[in-house]
């Protein structure tokens, strides 16, 4: 199991589970960073032609030349900008350990095991 990484957890939470919080321009950065990682993998895997092909899909061509650390930095900078705009409270944290949950609707922390699902016989969970 991968160790908890607050920065990675935050990016995953915001970019994968709260895309509505991002502006269209910010979504392009997320997309470019992901393409940048694939381009990096193709380059490292000895597939430079595939890397070039993928590079044509980038909104910002600079992402084709970034390394893993630079891609992480771009994503973290974006995540911080989103949080500064929308507020830290959009990020749901575990009530026991304080770590970022996997999704906004999570009812269990997979890091410490804390579980707040409604028990059978209790009130029905809200639908939707
Ligand atoms: Zn927890």
Verbal overview:
This protein is elongated. The protein is an all-alpha fold and 128 residues long. Helices cover 47% and strands 0% of the residues. Zinc ion (ZN) binds next to loops. The site of zinc ion (ZN) has 8 residues, from loops.
Layout of helices and strands:
Elements: H1 6-17, H2 24-44, H3 48-55, H4 68-86
Helix pairs in contact: 1-4, 2-3, 2-4
Bound molecules: zinc ion (ZN).
Short recap of the structure:
This protein is mainly alpha-helical. The chain has 4 helices and no strands. The protein has a domain of 85 residues.
Q: Average pLDDT value?
A: 93
Strand content: under 5%
* Main pleated-sheet profile: none
Oligomeric description of these chains: single chain
What pattern of helices and strands is seen along the backbone? Answer: HHHH
Low-confidence stretches: none
What is the SS-derived class? mainly alpha
State the separation between the terminal residues, measured CA to CA.
31 Å
- Helix content bin: 40-55%
Overall form: elongated
**Nearest-angstrom radius of gyration?**
18 Å
Q: What is the β-strand count?
A: 0
Report the total helices. 4
Bound molecules: zinc ion
